[in-house]
Amino acid sequence: MEGLLSAHLIIAITCFFVVCRAVDITHFRVPKFVNRRDEVTLECNFKMSEPHETLHSVKWYRIDHSGSMEDFFTYSPSKNPPVKTYPRTGIRVDTRHSNVRQVTLRKVSLLTSGVYRCEVTSKLSPAGIDSEVKEDRLVVLELPDEGPVITGGLPNYQLNDQLTLNCTSPRTFPPTLLKWKINKKAADLHTMKWPMKRGSKNGLFRTQIGLNITVSRALFHYGKIQVKCEGFIEDEIWQGHTDGDGSSHRILTILLPEKLKWPRPPAEFTVNKSAALVANLSWIHLVALMAAQLMSTMELCKSL
Asked: Most CB contacts within 10 A, which of 2, 141, 268, 276?
């Protein structure tokens, strides 16, 4: 008995002068980027540093964009049942697949995003209650594979007609950037930008731009006007919180990995030369040739 007390006393003195952890988190994993409606597993494996150490609890917290921290899952081996969950916005715990070392979240939404913290606490150690904490950020995205869609346009166009089109992206998070190209060249000067719309329920963005340009001979390239609308995912995600009076704010910029920013399939619209337009262009070309020939004849007469 005296030997056991002496051993405990030595450990207590050692932990007084040196940082002595009774519990160590050996493996911690929070997925960085996940898709909306996915099932996500958070992992937190640990071990006790001494045989006499026992687990007091494992708690999971979520820190949202405003900096508010809320616990949503607790595992206490001394309780019956040991698992207890707390209702939080955007968090649905699958208790069937959650235990002392992992927590599974069902059908994540944009509201699920935040910093997730695992806290493992031991008890009855010589140094008293001890705990270790690890945390990492989880960001929920909506990145559909399909690209934007072009609407509007007419079957045929004449010279000096207005070519008016709209391009709309699918609902995404972060927002989609849209750009027009005409015959592979940027058409920023003819682009009309509309306010970005965000869904009130799901928080997804829908982007729309317009194109308005006058049909001219210069636009035709090999007998066609090739219009494309290309969609790109934003390079950055801005997440934060601003007080109602605007006195303070917390803004966080999250960079997306390159593999998530690949361009989606572009939408295309082609204007072909109609019969009437070809005839019109031919007549204009003929008049131009006649004018050039007349000018040449007049110059010849002057020289005589």
From this structure: 141
pLDDT above 70 for 137: yes
pTM equals: 0.76
List domains and CATH numbers for the chain: 2-141 (2.60.40.10), 149-288 (2.60.40.10)
How far is residue 222's CA from residue 188's CA, in Å, rounded to a whole number?
Answer: 22
Tell me which residue of 118, 15, 35, 110 sits closest to 72, measured CA to CA.
118
- Whether the pLDDT of residue 275 is over 80: the answer is no
Average pLDDT over residues 251-262: 78
